[in-house]
Amino acid sequence: MATSVKEKLSSFFIGQQHIAPLAVFRIAFGSIMLLSTIRFALKGWVYAFYIKPQFHFTFYGFDGVKPLGATGMYSLFGLLIISSLLITIGLFYRVAILTFFLCFTYVELIDKTTYLNHYYFVSILSFLLILVPAHRYFSVDVLRKPRLAVTQVPAWTINLFKLQLLLVYFFAGLSKLNYDWLIAALPLKIWLPANSHLPIIGSLLTQLWVAYAFSWFGALFDLGIGFFLLWEKTRKPAYAFVVLFHLATGILFKIGMFPYIMIAVTPIFFSERTHLQIIDFLRKLLPEWGIRSRETRRIYQMPVVQQKLIWAVLGLHFTIQLLLPFRLLLYPGKLYWTEEGYRFSWRVMLMEKGGTAFFYVKDPTTGRQTEVVNAQYLTSLQENMMATQPDMILQYAHFLAREYEQKGIKNPIVTAESYVTLNGSGSRLYIDSTINLANEEETFDHKRWILPFRQ
Amino acid sequence: MRTFILVALAATGLALGSQSCSKSSDDQAPAATSFDRKAMLTNLSTNLILPAYTSFQTTAVNLDAAVTAFNTTPDAAKLTALQSAFQAAYKQWQATSAYGFGPADQANLRVNTNTYPADVAQINTNISSGTYNPTLLANLAAKGLPALDYLLFGVGTDNNAILQQYTTDSKAANRKTYLAALSTELKTNITTVVNAWNSGYTATFLNATGTDVGSSTGQLVNQLDYDVDVFKNYEIGIPAGVQSMGTAYPEKVQAYYSKMSVQLALLHIQALQNIYLGKSAQGDGLGFDDYLTQIGAKSSSGGSLNDVIKAQFATATAKLQTLTDPLSDNIKTNQGAVTATYTELQKLLVLLKTDMTSSLGILITYGDNDGD
């Protein structure tokens, strides 16, 4: 038993495997990112999210990340498009993937208003792709420099993506194991009937049992799918479920590219044989590439130091990945209400939350008070996202304090009255509206001025 | 594999232990039931939206005709007739402003019709120079109903003095030309919108039965919320000094010169309530009240959200009724009553924008989301 586990572990990490899955993964990731970025730009979101707003909600510790202005932002997206293309065809791969990771992550760090779990996921995948030789097979780089070609790579270079995907699904499933989702079928009980206009399934979506069925199936799917994909016997039906599940969520909810990204990257779980077939199929589409001739087995050699360094980075990465979703345990109160420890934890589509926030600035010397016209400083998207998230409320309050100091009010008192509803609970006061937010500091500690969620 | 399962089970237990103790709503949370959105859209478009547009078109046509008559022979009787035609148009606008989507959005109907306070300096510049470019951004506050309000009620202390501006004044001819340009523009804009609805948009509206940003329900709710927000800020809040450190700006009220601000505000809130209720001359049809009742939407106290919203409409209306025209004077004498009205409008906004929208699962923002 012990030896077999040891053997399995060793084959999982350092056993040699054909590089084909890695090459296919690179092509899938690159092309879906190409589509994704072009779609983003075509929708006018570069302007709406990164050029138009005069104020940005930066991430804690990343206050220095600022948008680059119109020319800069469009150039950044141009770089993203070019690097996605280069990743897909495998040209100047190392530079391309590094560029992609840096540009993408930079854009994401500019404003947490647009934070989405799948953007975080893309950042992670591109980071991991920097560490592996995904361009050493079926790529322009290999055509250019045939000496780069390899056929065998250590198994960890492929398995690390499986582990990452497994964690994403599993944590998404774990986060669904709560009262609201399982027992109250919320928020699906609100969201599904909102889709009653869809043909065929529309009338079904208004049925209560369907909301329960979707909730429970969704939770079980997320919890189990990673393991079913790992296990060879269940792999094919599991992938069929992946495709169906994500397409269904793609139709029902406005979740953008996420379903297609998952459909594109989960084939990594399939065997090298399947991936070689995919590559043969791609070769047929590109006749000048020629039929795959008999390959000479060439093993990828990585200097020991480099490998150890990468392993250390991966060890650290996955430790963080394992622990980060549990940081919610360090905070008191209801997670969905406080959102302390909510992000970066694969919590997707878990709550229907809305809010309206009014901000007041008071001059302590005259005692006179004014309501702030939020639309003067924020876009409606920013305003809506801010109203339900304490850290953003605080950031905006600090911005207002600076703004009114410049207008000549010394030590302005900034208070906020935000009314928030969670999963159809009805709106109630969200934070203590008597607290001078200008004096509160952003930390990782619990924010005492968040009012507790009462029934 | 077994280790994996053990780890998984342990983690599951941990997560359950940490999350399951809290719940966000009681067991009688909104039940999933069907509501015929298309029937609501049909009622709203047939009995409220289209009649509102066409009525406003009628008042605009009448107003333009009254301007023509007045310009031909400017006398006291024609002035009074013109003034009442203007008042009729301004009153009808209160029931029209909330429908700022679709063709009305394309025609920028709201800002072209009712950007106030009127920019008197800009109006006089346009009159003196004899040139007026309606597409100029600077002219937004020099056109539409607020500019007419000034031209018909504000250019003199009484009707005699006003009449002189169109007869003996050195710029009388230019002023008449400007008056005509504004009333014609008003008529043209609303006619464009009515024509668009009659030539295809009605079908578009009825067929966009979803709940996302571009859907008809989504647009209606978004514009209703926006209109309530504009109402509370521009008709009440800004003049009362709510957004200016308590310094009141009485002259910034709607219809400052014709002194019917409170009258208009009451018509406005009535119109907003009718949209919510789906209520028209044809009776009380399907509206958001029925939608919320059907899905069992709850307020924060656990009772019916519809009841709370209806009660808040009543409270806000009652507060508005305590105010008197001219509102600009009322603000000077009783600022407290005006800000108290503002507070009730604020509560109404929260209920419509947050509680109602969230209960209906309507998306109010563009962009992708992952549900937070």
Automatic annotation (TrEMBL), chain A:
The Gene Ontology terms for molecular function here are:
gamma-glutamyl carboxylase activity; vitamin binding
Phylogenetic classification of the source organism: Bacteria, Pseudomonadati, Bacteroidota, Cytophagia, Cytophagales
**Membrane-spanning regions, if any?**
20-42, 76-107, 119-138, 150-172, 209-231, 238-263, 309-330
Q: Which SMART domains match?
A: HTTM
**A GO-annotated cellular component:** endomembrane system
- What topology does it adopt in the membrane? Multi-pass membrane protein
Going by the UniProt record, its keywords in alphabetical order are: Disulfide bond, Lyase, Membrane, Transmembrane, Transmembrane helix
Q: What is this protein called?
A: HTTM domain-containing protein
Location of the HTTM-like domain: 14-274
Localization terms from the record: Endomembrane system
Pfam families in alphabetical order: HTTM, VKGC_lumenal_dom
Keyword field contains Nucleotidyltransferase: no
From TrEMBL, chain B:
Asked if the record carries the keyword Signal, the reply is yes
Ranges where the Imelysin-like domain occurs: 49-350
Q: In terms of one coarse class, where is the protein primarily found?
A: other
* Coiled-coil positions: none
Q: Which InterPro entries match?
A: Imelysin-like (IPR018976), Imelysin-like_IPPA (IPR034984), Imelysin_sf (IPR038352)
Q: Where would you find this protein in the cell?
A: Cell envelope
Sorted keywords for this record are: Signal
What protein does this entry describe?
Peptidase M75, Imelysin
State the species of origin: Spirosoma arboris
